[in-house]
Amino acid sequence: MRADGQVTLKTPITRAWASAARACLAALFTLFVTEPALAQPSLVPPKLEQDPGVTYPKSELAAGFYERVVVVLILEIDKDGAVSRANVETPRGDAFDQEALKASKKLKFTPAQRGGKPWASRIKFRYVFEPPPPGLGGRVTNASTGKAVARVRVRVRAADGSEHWATTDDAGGWKIAGLPRGKAEVAVLEEGYEEQTASVILAPGDDTEVVFRLAPREQAAEQVAAKVPELEVTVRGEKLAPAVRSFSRAEVRQMPGAFGDPFRAIEALPGVTPLASGLPFFFVRGAPPGNVGYFLDGVRVPFLYHVGIGPSVIHPGLVERVDLYSGGYPAAYGRFAGGIVAAETTAPRPVLHGEGNVRLFDAGVLVESGFADGKGTALVGGRYSYTAALLSLIAPEVELAYRDYQARVTYDVTPRDKLTLFSFGSYDLLGENLDGALKVLFGTEFYRADLRHDHDTGSGSIRTAVTYGLDRTKNEFLAGEQRSIITHMVGARNVLKDRLSDNVLFRAGTDVTLENFSLSDPKYSDPDAPETQAFEKKFTDRNDLVLGVWTDFVFDVTPDIEVIPGARVDLYRSGSASAVGIDPRIAARFAVSERVTITHAYGIAHQPPSFALPVPGLSPADLSGGLQRSFQTSAGVEVDVAEATSAALTFYHNAFFNMTDSIGTSNRDGPPTMDDQRARGSAIGAEVLIKRNLSKRLGGFLSYTLARSSRTLGREEFPSNADRTHVLNAALGYNLGRGWRPGARGVFYTGVPKAEESSQAVSETRTGDVERGPAFFRLDVRLEKRWVLGDTTWISFVAEVLNATLAKETFGDEEIGPVTIPSIGVEGGF
Amino acid sequence: MARGYIWLALGLCGCLPDDTRPPPGRINVTISSDEALTQEQGILTADGWRVSFSRFLITLGEADLDDCSEYNETDYLRLFSLPGAGAQRVSTVYGLGKCSFGFEMLPPTRDTVPGAGVTEADYRLMGIPASDGYAVDAGAALYVSGTAVSGGVEKRFTWSFRRGYKYEFCETDAAVGVTLTGDSVQTVDIQVRSSTLFVARPDDDSAELRFAPFAAADDSFGNADGEVTLSELAAVPFELAAEFPEWQTLADYLYLGLVPSVPRFKGTGTCEYKPEEDDD
After folding, report:
1. Cβ–Cβ of B111/A760 closer than 8 Å?
2. ipTM, two decimals
3. For B195-241, how does the pLDDT look when each residue is reduced to its tens digit (9 = 90+)?
4. Which residue of B has its CA nearest to A668?
5. pLDDT tens digit string along A260-293?
6. What is the Cα–Cα distance from A223 to A435, expressed in whole angstroms?
7. Which residues of A touch B75 (CB under 8 A)?
8. What residues have CB less than 8 Å from A114, skipping those under 6 apart?
9. Can you name the residues that pair with A550 across neighbouring β-strands?
10. Which residues of B touch A434 (CB under 8 A)?
11. What distances in angstroms separate CA B156 from CA A27, A446, A527, B161, B230, one per listed residue?
């Protein structure tokens, strides 16, 4: 408990800070003296020496009263420094008043002094009663053996959306303090075990204990059949922003065709269509891939997949969850007009653990451990491809290499302050050896270092971070010849979260990014080539500055209604041009019943001109045409159908203005161009997602999108070149027992409009009625055999094929493929 | 040293390899006109017609090296109004080694660069898509208009040729393709031989020129209005059809047999060519 006092001479009032005699207690006193005393400046106020504090009355807690209460007492302090008399100045209820009076008897002061002699005095003294935070802890045991399971992670998602983590000790025990009151979702996530979740209500003063009995995956089915007493588990939707779609790491690992990559798994979500089968560049509700931003812990990731179709550049073991914001996203996210894919890294674990995999084309590893008695953690991970060695046997002239790394060090400076240094990077090279010299057909690399400080304020948190980044892309014919474009980025951001009251969470942040772009000098260019000129104009050497400010409030209007109004403002400066984006956002969630929730998300989003595909360094300079802008609206209903099973139906309508969508608007065959035709666009559709957690014995999902995406250029209105009317993903996985889990995913989508041959100088007018290519269907399959070797150790054999049906895809009149990606490998963890 | 380790630890290093290729040779690709274009009075055919061009537009470019080390890409066309003043620049390509050489003659695109003296009207004339018996909804790769005069009779012609062609493996009697050595500079001129449109045989550079069959197309197969049109030429049987069965009419012969041979590699050279729509 905290005690505040105020010391004030009656008239004239002088004020002095009493020394902070007790840790965490700043006392300010008010001293009442008589008029004659004014003439005696030698008065020294009493000084607090001892304060055992007060305890929040249990009777009030039991009655469900959790408010912060202040009781002001008038204390008379004798010449010995003891409280001779105490009276309540402002009664706040018998329990609080009595507790305050009782506690005041234990106060001890150095008496006031006048003329160097002890003097009796009278002061005001404040007691502040804060409701004690709920306590939450428990144990984790093995359901088969009853033994404690050590070193497993327990995640608590609190009522305010914040996540907290604990790791079980040798006795299987875990405990988390400082949680906000309200409903909390507790989950045990450990490789080799069925995921278990529990829903608990945390109340101040209560110590809630949750005991999990983990069943190894291969035993889970048998456990169910044998009706082993289960934990009372209520599976609820995650407390995330309204209208967001998420996949957890455990689910992603079971998704056929995703190769365990969380970023690739978003392809299966409604509203998302790939550029082409197997190519992980996605359209989100009609917005092209260049309008979709990817973030990892708030740090933008410029390039997600190795060599275009390869694995993601972030080790899957480091990604806890991936959220897709298709529109009306939180104010914290901006500068992308199409959508946001935000991933969170796993929480630091101060115990030695790790995982690795060896596959046909590459190998990856991730290891983390603690140091300084658990105050610090260090993680290192990465992936290395040996395709170069393999290719050298088949095609010695071809050089293909990719690799990535992630490194993270955290240190708890104080119980409330954590420092984190997180760095990650990626390297891709596709080249051709000619006459002893290497011709780079495509090469790209990026590196990020993010240093951040997280401070727990008690009622929230403050994150302050600085980021440095380096991007470099080199292409055989970048700007007409082999040149490279390099970007140096320095950024800083600050995020504040503060629970203003039980019903209001305040969030705000600022961020600034300075980027320096430089295109290597031409050596062998044709200066008249339009492509070269356009490229040099668009990707010119320059400095770009973006300054953003945002805020939102999470209002729990009632326990069933949550409203999140917010806004962000971004100031863009590129070269000598400037632009401002003002993005109001609002989202809401209405719980109609225990199982039915209605969600809404609306927002405006701005973005500078963008390249069609996300490639490091390829960021157009031209702001003179203004920012891209989108109005995003969606409304839907979510239903908890049964345990771990949910269904959602969402309607959306996004309007785009001033778009630089060369993929959607180009009427020429071939790859995306540097065309900067500004277009208007519209995307309207309905999304259905029926999902049963993939990590369950029988898990799967059905994801369907009915959509229409159109573009308008001048007076022409026509379907976007990427418009697909129907997109369907359906996956099913089943735990056969003994560690066997087969799975399959079917992907179906209708064809895109055929590109018209209109390369003439005078273009033809396009109409809304276009011929479309044929529909596409593919089947992805996955088979896993898992062996659990101990409480936390596991090993798996995984065979997976994307497009096992060898389906070919048609663009225009050209048939491409089959793009089939096989993967066979062994994974393990401890 | 410590700073280097810090950068290394953070992974902030540029690892992509530098350009270690040896310096290439450079080719300045140009376009020039034959005498039929440069001489004001035109040319005299073997059958006594004096043919002269009043307008000669051609879109040509995308010069390309292959089968060697290519250092850049010139993926664009230029629209030329010939004859112009001497040789005009087409593009610059860099490469190293013994290379095959190619280029394209195509209808202009939106990115086509105008050559000297080209007007907006020229651009629209070539760019507006249309159809004829040989191409559908295409702009013109070659546009010619002029007159032929003989014995006080004047015939006019205005022809748009809408088929584009890709030329590959160009060679002269002296050499196949081009050979580039480091830091060397050479010029490859593509001569536009307009007189080819009136050559009697397609496979013989020394064959005589004649215009009488064209004049007859208007007089005997057309409306005798003095304008020789492609429609009228399509009514005239090609006299060498037995030898060249792919060309049954004079229009076939002109459109498909002669037009592709108008651009000539280094003046006298030849290239393998194919219609653009067959390009795969």
Report:
1. no
2. 0.82
3. 999 999 988 878 899 999 999 999 999 899 999 999 999 999 999 99
4. B109
5. 888 888 888 999 988 888 777 889 999 999 999 9
6. 64
7. 529, 531
8. A37, A40, A42, A43, A44
9. A509, A568
10. 21, 69
11. 107, 64, 40, 16, 12
Paired tokens of A172: 């299987």
Whole-angstrom distance, CA of residue A620 vs CA of residue A613: 12
pTM score: 0.72
**Using 50, 70 and 90 to split pLDDT, how confident is the model at A767?**
low
DSSP code per residue over A702-746: EEEEEEEEEEEETTEEEE-TT--SEEEEEEEEE--BTTEEEEEEE
Mean pLDDT for back-to-back runs of 10 residues, chain B (280 residues): 50 69 92 89 92 94 91 89 87 93 93 89 90 91 95 94 95 91 93 93 87 94 93 93 92 94 91 74
Residues A519 and A537: their CA atoms lie apart, in Å, by 11
The β-bridge relationship of strands A339-345 and A292-296 is parallel
For residue B22, which residues of chain A lie inside 8 Å, CB to CB? 435, 437
Put simply, the answer to whether A481 touches B129 (Cβ < 8 Å) is: no
Query: Are B16 and A761 a contacting pair at CB < 8 A?
Result: no
pLDDT classification of A42: cutoffs 50, 70, 90 = low
Q: CA nearest B71: which of A520, A522, A533?
A: A522
What distance, in Å, lies between the first and last C-alpha atoms of chain B? 54
pLDDT tens digits for range A156-196: 888 777 788 888 888 888 888 878 777 788 888 776 677 77
* C-alpha to C-alpha distance for A298 and A463, rounded to whole angstroms: 11
Q: Considering CB atoms only, which of A407, A429, A525 is closest to B16?
A: A429
Q: Would you give the distance in Å from CA A647 to the centre of its chain?
A: 22
Q: How many CB atoms lie within 10 A of CB B272?
A: 12
